[in-house]
Amino acid sequence: MTDLDFGDTPIENIFINDYMPMADGTYVKVYLLGYKYAKDDDEKLCVNNESISRQLNIPLTDVLKAWDFWEQKGIIVKHKKEDADEYDYKVEFLNLKQLYIKNNYVLKSQANSIKNNTSIYTCTAEDLVESNKIPSINEMFTSIDYIVRRQLVPNEKRKVLEWLYNYNMSPEVIVKAFFYAVEQKGKRNINYVEGIVRNWYDMGITNLDMLEKHSKTQDERFYSYDRIMKSLGFSSRTPSEAEMKVIDKWFDEWKFTMEVILKACENTKKTANPSVNYIDGILSKWKEKGISSVDDIAVKDKPQPPNYQSSNSTASPRGAKAKTRFHTAEQRTAKYTPEELEAIARKRRG
To answer: Which CATH superfamily does the domain covering 101-217 fall into?
Structure first.
């Protein structure tokens, strides 16, 4: 009989509220099982990625992808062993409460100071170095570099950090400000971007939800980009110039509605690598079929039966031989009996 485990594993609410909604279900299962074993006091217990794979009945690659995901989110640390396989490492689970305080304490305290008109935060060189250790800020700078097509210099990075604290902005909103300035207004000047950030702050826009509501009413196409990327699972990534051209084509040339496009995005469940190009392939087929509404999809995009042949097909059924003129023409020997044919043959031989 299998021993029952009557123990308890406390999970921090920060994980449930903030991290779990952003993750694939498999990644959540890997985190929770690994966390449970990490909190177990049994010294005889031997757990590794292979045993987690077997217990959850999932491929080992999914376990490794899960740890990569949580490491990217900054809530675990992988400690690899020397001369070990790439999947042989220990996982350290970080205290989420301490992480939250570390990442948000300065932000909140500076925001309160500004509100009370007591001080304005000025970023130092030491602050800049320390900020690079925070995953969300590091990811923010990487996104900004991509948008402006160059790396920000240290003085520019210090300015951006000051915006975070002085305007109480989230890193994701700062990225959106750069994207809006470059792609919508054609401006790469950092002072111009600060003007956008300041305007958003004056309007009470400090997070993505507030920005989405504002964008929906003020800039419909910018809102469309944002909503499509979010439906593909890229909530914090802005589309590239090539991706925007593809999305523009869906609206301007193919005349698809947002409702139809989002319906196509639901098909990303069928692929491990959702992308704008993948959706472009789906919409291209729908355009060929004359689909222009969600109701059309159910009627014109039905899956065909396995041995389906179109009504215009000239192919013969499997196993049947196609008839030729030889088969359709009346055979000259059909009017003779077997005996008469034999007599004719003997006469020709004689």
So the answer is: DnaD domain-like (1.10.10.630)
Other beta carbons less than 10 A from residue 113's beta carbon: 15
Q: Which of 20-29, 317-326, 335-344 has the lowest mean pLDDT?
A: 317-326
Domain residue spans in the chain? 13-94, 101-217, 219-303
Report the predicted TM-score, pTM, of the whole model to 2 decimal places.
Answer: 0.40
Look at the domain 219-303 and name its fold.
Answer: Arc Repressor Mutant, subunit A (1.10.10)
**Residue-wise pLDDT tens digits, 247-259:** 999 999 999 999 9
In the CATH hierarchy, which fold is given to the domain comprising 13-94? Arc Repressor Mutant, subunit A (1.10.10)
